[in-house]
Design goal:
- The structure holds 2 protein chains of 2 kinds.
- Chain A contains 10 helices and 8 strands.
- Chain A has helices at residues 23-28, 48-73, 87-96, 115-121, 125-132, 166-180, 199-208, 260-277, 307-317, 323-345, and strands at residues 3-5, 107-109, 187-189, 217-223, 226-227, 230-231, 251-256, 281-286.
- In chain A, strand 7, helix 8 (260-277) and strand 8 form a beta-alpha-beta unit.
- In chain A, helix 2 (48-73) packs across helix 3 (87-96), helix 2 crosses helix 4 and helix 6 runs parallel beside helix 7 (199-208).
- Chain B is an alpha/beta fold.
- In chain B, 36% of the residues lie in helices and 17% in strands.
- A 7-stranded mixed beta sheet of chain B has the order 2-1-3-4-6-5-10, sandwiched between helices. Chain B has a 5-stranded mixed beta sheet with strand order 7-9-8-11-12, with helices on both faces.
- In chain B, helix 7 links the parallel strand 8 (227-231) and strand 9.
- Classes of the chains: A alpha/beta, B alpha/beta.
């Protein structure tokens, strides 16, 4: 159940008559901008086709991530980090983002668990594997960075960095540009719960809520209750990370990020609010981490709620799809992922000479030996 | 003549009025103060940020990702250190994205000692900055160069760190900026914010002309064939004075080079001069261990060993954790006129 909290300040303005309430609000049965409103739906739902599309993409993302792990374990790559367990958050986000290039579209400042979002946006398995296997054909980094460190300018997916939480401050910059251009685009930032201890997270709350200069940001936290090997309980005094936004008068929400329907509706609602008001939202999604932090701690399946299993059961119970059809989806994507890995394995790798490419724009010389 | 602060301010005005700069921001950068050194007074796009250096650099990066042109200020270089990982990101974004995301931002910050700034208003960041691959790093020593370098920095498609030597910010130049009124008082009345209530004040900008200093181009400020002194920023005027003193006292002609750009740097000008003189002294005020001058000195040894008449020297700040407030402490910590003169004499006296 999503628990959307709106400060009186943030929710004081009534909904625009020009903007009908989103489906999520209808489903919730309450205005999402009403002061201290709590979305308390009796039955969250979405059209069958959206649900089936989400299920399909969640399975595709999981199969791809498991293929990335296999590629790592086969010795075809050096490191794995990724998103198994975050599909019920990432796929709805990818489906709802207003994708395109430039300030008129949404910016995505992702952390290194963005595969479900990118799969939902249309990234191919091959392009994810090209990054994983450091091929020169890798459209994100040309073989320069780890897997899940995506970069797709055509969709405003800015480069993912290994330092955690720096993306929150950068999202302030793109959101500021969107505000200046009076665009309906918003800046979306994702990150883990442990990283919120960094000052950059607190900084983003400060910068996005400056009086009269509020920024159109969807600030999200994927709370899997672990930071590498350190549990949430040992480091966080706050009940919900989202509560920290209340001190800034921000609209906040806590969402079951293992439920794709609840997540879809919550993201849709919050995006609509941000586009309409130009103000930020802090949204916390409770998610699973099913293969640990990264290959550094084994990348083996662990206990935890599997959002895909639960959603499969839901879709079967609803008679949207048969179990046999779901099984076929897994098999088809497995074949697809294997073929993609086989293809990418044959592709060229970066040359030694290319290290100086793109240090400066237009390949201006940056090698002091040639000054 | 304009001071360096006024010169940079005028360049920023050109930036926001003609070159597409949309945001000039930092701590106390907007009205009413207009910057700790008054560099941003009267600028229409200048605004005050939260007191958050990391937020300032992060926001600049985000603006760069969105293709905006911005100039961000860190109030003193002493406070830029907690942003180093962000500076690394700004410098590697184009490279990490395989050429897809340029980072056309300018970060300016007052640098170095010379204002009795004590431990946290006297740091130098220049040697640290040269380790930030992907950045261009400039440091002017005259108002005209400051104007021309800022114009170039704003136009550059790469991140540019603009180091402003604190001690020279109020020093007036000897050359007019194109369009600058000849009378200092006239310029002051036009672009300096008044004391007291500034709420209704607006700058009256002169019609400023085109002038750029190409990033990567040094300038020979004194010609000579007895020795070469290479410097930048605060120590540049001191090096010029040393050359003048040596000429006056013994007729010795020392060549002085203002590097102006630390990266990329103008090796060809430096090399040509060393080949002519056979003797070289590199002067700057950052701390001496792994100092940028050491890189230049090492390069001189490696490439010009058989053309040298004396061992190359580096005169830099002492390897100290801070610069003490009392003048005795500050002057003993970073190069001053007597130090440069002493090193220059030693260099000239060495017999191969």
């Amino acid at each position: 159940m999503a628990k959307t909290q709106v400060s009186k300040k943030a929710g004081a303005k009534p909904a625009s008559k020009k903007m009908p309430p989103p489906a999520a609000q209808k489903a919730a049965g309450k205005s999402a901008v009403k002061a201290k409103a709590v979305i308390a739906p009796t039955k969250l739902t979405l059209p069958k086709q959206i649900q089936l599309n989400m299920l399909d993409l969640m399975i595709k993302s999981r199969v791809l991530e498991e293929r990335l792990i296999k590629v790592y374990k086969a010795g075809d790559s050096y490191f794995w980090i990724g998103a198994p367990g975050e599909e019920a958050f990432g796929v709805p986000l990818g489906l709802l983002v207003h994708k395109g290039q430039g300030v008129e579209y949404d910016y995505l400042h992702l952390h290194y668990r963005g595969t479900p979002t990118l799969v939902a946006m249309g990234m191919t398995m091959e392009d994810s594997l090209r990054l994983m296997m450091n091929r020169s054909t890798d459209p994100s980094t040309g073989g320069r960075n780890f897997c899940n460190h995506y970069c797709f300018p055509k969709w405003n997916v800015v480069p993912v960095t290994s330092p955690i939480e720096v993306q929150y401050g950068q999202a302030v910059g793109t959101a500021l540009a969107q505000r200046r251009h009076k665009s309906k685009g918003i800046s979306i930032v994702t990150g883990g719960d442990a990283g919120t201890a960094e000052g950059d997270f607190a900084g983003a709350l400060v910068w996005s809520t400056r009086p009269g200069m509020e920024l159109p940001m969807l600030i999200t936290v994927q709370n899997n209750r672990m930071g590498i090997s350190t549990s949430y309980e040992t480091q966080h005094g706050e009940k919900h990370i989202a509560d920290r936004g209340k001190a800034f008068g921000m609209r906040t929400t806590v969402v079951n990020g293992n439920d794709p329907i609840e997540t879809y509706l919550a993201i849709q609602t919050e995006m609509e609010y941000i586009r309409r008001t130009g103000k930020p939202v802090l949204a916390e999604f409770e998610v699973s981490r099913l293969y640990g932090h990264s290959s550094a701690d084994g990348a083996n399946r662990r206990d935890g709620v599997c959002p895909i299993q639960d959603f499969e059961k839901h879709c079967v119970d609803q008679k949207f799809i048969k179990s046999s059809e779901i099984k076929q989806l897994w098999e088809d994507y497995d074949v697809q992922s294997r073929a993609a890995a086989d293809l990418v394995r044959q592709e060229p790798v970066p040359t030694r000479e290319s290290i100086w490419d793109h240090v400066y724009a237009n390949n201006e010389n940056a090698d002091w030996r040639k000054f | 003549m304009a001071s360096m602060a006024q010169a940079i301010r005028m360049a920023l005005h050109v930036g926001e009025s003609k070159l597409g700069v949309t945001e000039i921001f930092g701590e106390d950068v907007g009205a009413p103060l207009g910057g700790a050194f008054t560099v941003t007074q009267g600028l229409k796009t200048a605004w005050n940020s939260p007191l958050d250096e990391r937020g300032i650099i992060s926001t600049a990066i985000g603006l760069g990702l969105a293709g905006e042109r911005c100039v961000a200020e860190i109030q003193f270089a002493d406070y830029i250190f907690n942003t180093v990982d962000l500076l690394k990101i700004a410098g590697n974004t184009l490279w990490c994205s395989n050429g897809q995301y340029p980072m056309p931002i300018v970060v300016m910050t007052p640098n170095g000692a010379g204002i009795r700034g004590s431990i946290y208003h006297s740091h130098s960041f220049d040697s640290w900055a040269t380790r930030l691959a992907g950045w261009k790093v400039v440091c002017p020593s005259t108002p005209l160069d400051a104007y021309g370098l800022m114009i170039s920095a704003i136009k550059d498609p790469n991140p540019v760190l603009f180091l402003m030597p604190k001690a020279l910010m109020r020093v007036r130049g000897e050359e007019l900026i194109p369009g600058e009124p000849e009378d200092e008082k006239t310029l002051k009345a036009m672009i300096d914010a008044p004391i007291g209530d500034r709420s209704k004040w607006k700058a009256k900008w002169p019609e400023l002309g085109e002038y750029e200093v190409a990033i990567g181009e040094a300038k020979i400020t004194r010609s000579g064939d007895a020795a070469t002194i290479v410097s930048f920023g605060r120590t540049m005027p001191l090096c010029n004075r040393v050359a003048d003193m040596l000429r006056e006292e013994s007729g010795t002609e020392v060549e002085v080079i203002d590097l102006r750009s630390l990266y990329p740097y103008d090796w060809q000008t430096v090399k040509k001069s060393i080949q002519k003189t056979g003797r070289v002294l590199f002067v700057n005020e950052d701390t001496e261990v792994t100092n940028f001058g050491e890189h230049l000195s090492q390069r001189a040894v490696n490439e010009l060993f058989y053309e040298l008449m004396a061992r190359p020297r580096v005169l830099a700040g002492k390897q100290l954790p801070g610069i003490g407030l009392h003048p005795n402490l500050e002057e003993a910590s970073v190069p001053h006129l007597e130090d440069i003169l002493h090193e220059a004499r030693e260099l000239l006296a060495e017999v191969p």
